[in-house]
Amino acid sequence: MSDLMSGNGTRVDYVALVAQHYFIYAALEGAADRFAEDSTASAFITPQLTRVPALEADLEFLIGSDWRESITPVPAAERYADRIEEVAAEGWAGGFIAHHYTRYMGDLSGGQHISKLMKRQFGFDAAGVYFYLFDQIADPTAFKNTYRERLDAVAWDAAERERVIEEVVSAYRFNTELFVDLSKAKAAA
Question: Which CATH superfamily is domain 2-183 in?
């Protein structure tokens, strides 16, 4: 990611990152389907955040129509997706929200900047960076503030709040491990 953000990354580096996001978001949005009726988690689930269709469009643009056969998760992305699926199988709304918050709010916060850099670096228009375009959210700052207000309003006891925070830390760790695995794969190539 540091190579991409500094202008030293290649298109191949970017495609690798987009592919890994696909596996993570497929797991996250599959979990969202399972939590759609949950009284706590459903307050955070909105089609405005859905990323899988954008990732699919980006991968088709970047790789071609056979992109599904061309991508595989790195070990960290696989562990990350497995953890999201495990949380969903447990029916743990707090764990789902921890991953939901970490992924979507992070991408909504940094996505506009990343999109601009990738457009400039690789000559993309919108195709290739649809993932970062939250075009159904008119005011990202207001959206994030509302999201945080909902998060603050959840009536978790102290133990559950701590458990959710620990899961957010795990989500950040998975994300860091993802970048390490992508760096290893790049070095091996």
Answer: Heme oxygenase-like (1.20.910.10)
**pTM of this prediction?**
0.94
Residue 84 identity (one-letter amino acid):
I
Interhelix angle 106-122/11-35, nearest 10 degrees: 150
What are the mean pLDDT values of the chain's consecutive 10-residue runs (189 residues total)? 77 95 98 96 97 98 97 97 98 98 93 88 93 94 96 96 97 95 88
Sequence ranges of the domains in the chain: 2-183
